[in-house]
Amino acid sequence: MEYEIKVNISKEDHFAFQKEYLMNSKITIIFLSICLAWSFFSIGQDIYNDRRDIVSLILKDAIPVILMLLSFVLLFPPIYRCLLKHLYNSDRAIQEEQTLLLKEDGIHHSMQRGSFNYTLEDFKRVIFGKKIIAIFVSKQKALLLPRHCFSSKEEEQAVEDFIKAHYVKAKKEK
Fold first, then answer.
1. Which of 37, 11, 3, 40 is nearest to 146 (CA)?
2. pTM for this prediction
3. What pLDDT score does 171 carry?
4. One-letter-per-residue 3-state SS of 62-123
5. What's the sign of the alpha-carbon dihedral 98, 104, 155, 164?
6. Which of 95, 144, 127 is nearest to 22 (CA)?
7. How many CB atoms lie within 10 A of CB 49?
8. Residues of the chain with pLDDT under 50
9. For residues 21, 26, 27 and 33, what is the CA-based torsion angle, rounded to 10 degrees?
10. In what order do the strands lie in the sheet with 125-128?
11. How far apart are CA 8 and CA 149, in angstroms?
């Protein structure tokens, strides 16, 4: 069985991919866990060392953490979006129409600039996001399938099942 999919990757698709990648990244989870543990440890240590005024101790440690989190939440998205816009605009190959032929033994990726054949051994991992499916062919490169490029929900589900059956399984067998 084969699926031929025409793909046009927009800035929004590229941003959705980067967001899914960031949220599925182990380093992000580790970084957030360390920050959270550090905050609780700092507050807990102050409470343990000086039990007289717990509220002021919590506020003394919590206010800098809250300010850092707020600045991160408010400043990171616009800066990250600007960076992604620049990355998308600088890569003309990603802006072209692409054709992905999904086969049981791999993917044939073609566009105006050339064509590539990827075998099952090339697939590193697959991310099934809300807006995009990303098939990684290296640690830094992924083939993107925006969910809006499918003609129906049934086709989208069939392709997702096909990818799970053939490409995800190949990684687990290694």
1. 11
2. 0.72
3. 46
4. HHHHHHHHHHHHHHHHHHHHHHHHHHHHHCHHHHCCEEEEEECCEEEEEECCEEEEEEHHHC
5. negative
6. 127
7. 8
8. 170-172, 174
9. 120
10. 125-128, 132-136, 142-146
11. 8
